[in-house]
Amino acid sequence: MKLFSAEQIYAADKFTIAKQNITSDELMERSAVQIFNWMHLRMQGAPVKIHLFCGIGNNGGDGIALARHLQEHGYNIAVYVVNYSTKRSKDFLINLDRLKDRKIWPNFMDSDGEFPEIGADDIIVDAIFGIGLNRPPAKWVGKLIDHFHASKAFILSVDIPSGLYMNQVPEQKDAVVRANFVLSFQTPKLVFFLPETGIYIDQWEVLDIGLDMEFLTAEETDYELIGKSEVLPMYVPRTKFSHKGTHGHVLLVGGSYGKIGAVTLASVAALKIGSGLVTSYVPACGYTILQTALPEAMVLTDGETAITSIDYTIKPSAIGIGMGMGTETQTIQAFATFLKSNSLPLVIDADGLNMLASNMELCSFLSKQTVLTPHEGELERLVGKWEDDFDKLAKVKALSKKFDCIVVIKGAHTITVYHDKGFVNTTGNPGMATAGCGDVLSGIITGLIAQGYESLKAAIFGVFLHGKSADLQIESKGYQALLASDVVEGLGTAYLDLFKLPEKPPQQEAESQE
Ligand SMILES: NC(=O)C1=CN([C@@H]2O[C@H](COP(=O)(O)OP(=O)(O)OC[C@H]3O[C@@H](n4cnc5c(N)ncnc54)[C@H](O)[C@@H]3O)[C@@H](O)[C@H]2O)[C@@H](O)CC1
Ligand SMILES: [K+]
After folding, report:
1. d(Cα 270, Cα 278) in Å, to the nearest integer?
2. Where are the domains of the chain?
3. What sign results for the dihedral spanned by CA atoms 461, 493, 225, 266?
4. ipTM > 0.90?
5. Ligand 1 atom nearest residue 136's Cα
6. Residue nearest (by alpha carbon) to ligand 1 atom 22
């Protein structure tokens, strides 16, 4: 699913209005009806008090139009106009008149007025600011937002939590609505998924307001949200006459004394994701461990407790390097020599990234589209400190372009960046914040590349499957008990889940039984 910028959404609005020969207030009406239907379906006329706080732009217009529908269906509403400026939008005014025609008089709030009482069991509809916010809200509006939070009422935000920008992190962290639910028009917003701005959203859902599909399909976006429908076309099925040689040979280089587990986890993940052969290249202290833990892998060794040179005669199809490798001087030398001569597809993780960060000149030797899989700490060593999430993304894009590499920024929503484009993952859960999960991911991505997936697809698909496996596993294991090896274990079901059809809605089943 594409993640559009504010400018693209405004352009889509304009295009839709012209092509469908409708007025902009008709589009607003559609949006309001969609929100109303969503609420009505869940509330079924419940007499809960609904406080609608509406700004004076089009987000406010949505709120005012929604108020009319709620009132027509007998809901218990109170409407407030948050007068943060004098520039009321045309469609806001049209809807305000329609509301007045129905004898509903909103409370007009400004910097001097008192805030209304809101009960903990009430509902707040937040329609103050939408995607048009372009400067910090006035102080009193920030206080109103505080008042929302203090009430403990359920907050439903229209389109985007008020106070969040589309393309930057808010300056005033407390002048942003913390939404329990966001109903986002047509497309979710990038800020829902970034660590500094995603914290303002518990749950979100997209409402289709019928923006022109032709326009949306043709429009290129900087970011894409990756779910099942995006990865399914990437899947390469096995053919009947395939053999283990068909599915690639992974070489994993890593491990040091006390950290052989890292390369073991990556190796088993590479096998489980489907690579035909796996060779683990470890220091001698890892030999028995690997041969015992993973009889399916082949093992090459060098050095006693750390790798001192990387030398092999096998012909791998993809190489993963760095897991538990340590950063001893000889290991760094071996790593540098290896990078200078290697032209095979490559995945670099953990200590490999640390060695790269302290010797950035080595980046120019990366084979094309090398995949780097840093967590935040490793990333900071690679690109330097960032000011905020947007600055971080800009720095990563610059790194990706400079060295033609793919950067997988690991986090709650892992983002895979290649040149100017980011792919935001939707699978995974907090149970994955556990030792070894990163090693598993690097094994998965290397294993997919070895099977013939292009490096970028391998990274996007690998991140998805890794998270999906963990999501399926916590159903029986819970968050705390999830281990990296459970994530490896679940990879088979993660693959199978790709082909599971959504369950039929219960209503349909009841009908077909009659
Ligand atoms: N295609 C869509 O997605 C549609 C969007 N609609 C709604 O329209 C919204 C966007 O409407 P607008 O462009 O009017 O923007 P907003 O409703 O976000 O209003 C902000 C307005 O106030 C001004 N402003 C920005 N920051 C301010 C600040 N801190 N203090 C005072 N004034 C400030 C801006 O110039 C802007 O005109 C969307 O979020 C959505 O709710 C719907 O009505 C129709 C269809
Ligand atoms: K809003």
Report:
1. 7
2. 2-219, 231-236+244-497
3. negative
4. yes
5. 29
6. 57
Tokens of 249: 């040979």
CA of 203 to the centre of ligand 2 (A): 14
> Quick check: helix, strand or coil at residue 179?
strand
Q: How far apart are CA 162 and CA 139, in angstroms?
A: 14
pLDDT tens-digit series, residues 34-83:
999 999 999 999 999 999 999 999 999 999 999 999 999 999 999 999 99
Ligand found nearest the CA of 58: 1
Q: Give the class (CATH, top level) of 2-219.
A: alpha beta
For residue 499, report the distance from its CA to the centre of ligand 2, in Å: 36
Query: What DSSP string describes 48-117?
Result: -EEEEEE-SSHHHHHHHHHHHHHHHTT-EEEEEEE-S-S---HHHHHHHHHHHHTT--PEEE-TTSPPPP
Which ligand lies nearest the alpha carbon of 126? 2
Name residues whose C-beta falls within 8 Å of residue 309's C-beta, 6 or more positions apart in sequence. 302, 303, 330, 333, 334, 337
* Distance in Å, CA 424 to ligand 2 centroid: 23
Q: What is the CATH number of domain 231-236+244-497?
A: 3.40.1190.20
Residue 409 bridge partners (DSSP): 415
pLDDT (tens digit per residue) in 233-273: 999 998 888 776 789 999 999 999 999 999 999 999 999 99
